[in-house]
Amino acid sequence: MEYADVLKVAPITQKEKAYATVIGTEAVRQTSSTQTPHEVCEDVVVQERLPERDGNVGGTVAGAVIGGLLGNQVGGGNGRKVATAAGAVAGGMIGNNVDKRHVGGRVVNRTERQCHTETTTSESSQVTGYNVTYRNEDGTTGTMRMDSKPGNRIAMGNTDVVKGYDVTYRYDGAEKTIRMNDKPASDRLPVVDGQLVTQTAAADVGTTRQ
């Protein structure tokens, strides 16, 4: 059997869209907190102690009498009258203050409205994207972040796909080129009755002679 020597093998490529198979997706979530202040009021019972002379004016009257007596001893005539009146007023005020400050009276309950501010914290979560694990056509795997959840496959751009091979060979002193679907397995091709033998040969695309 005769053989032709393979001189050159040139792959014929074509641009095609490349896809990868999705093998897993994981949602990426972002959590945010919101604080809302609000007023809380309640009725609270408080105790207070009344003055010992609750409702009486004993201190005021006593103070006025003492103040008047002291003022009456000052000056004479109209001056004594003025001093007496002034002493009565001053003594009444002092006695009234004594009544207010004096403790020891009965304890009473009263209700008062008390308010304070409280803050309520609420959390919310939303999906911001997906971590997608994929497998390429060559078997390699990878992970990428996507804004939305993909389907069964994802586009990976364009790739060069080999559609065949232009094989240049020499036989009987002549060089020829033939289109083959598959790459030759060796550097020689069989020749029968002057014809190149290959099951994947497509067509002669040119002839070059030395």
UniProtKB/TrEMBL annotation:
Domain of life: Bacteria
InterPro entries referenced in this protein's UniProt entry, alphabetically: Bact_OM_lipoprot/Surf_antigen, Gly_zipper_2TM_dom
Coarse class of the protein's main subcellular location: membrane
Entry's Gene Ontology cellular component terms: outer membrane
Localisation per UniProt entry: Membrane
Keywords of the record: Membrane
Every Glycine zipper 2TM domain range: 58-98
Secreted among keywords: no
Name of the protein this chain belongs to: Glycine zipper 2TM domain-containing protein
Source organism per UniProt: Stenotrophomonas lacuserhaii
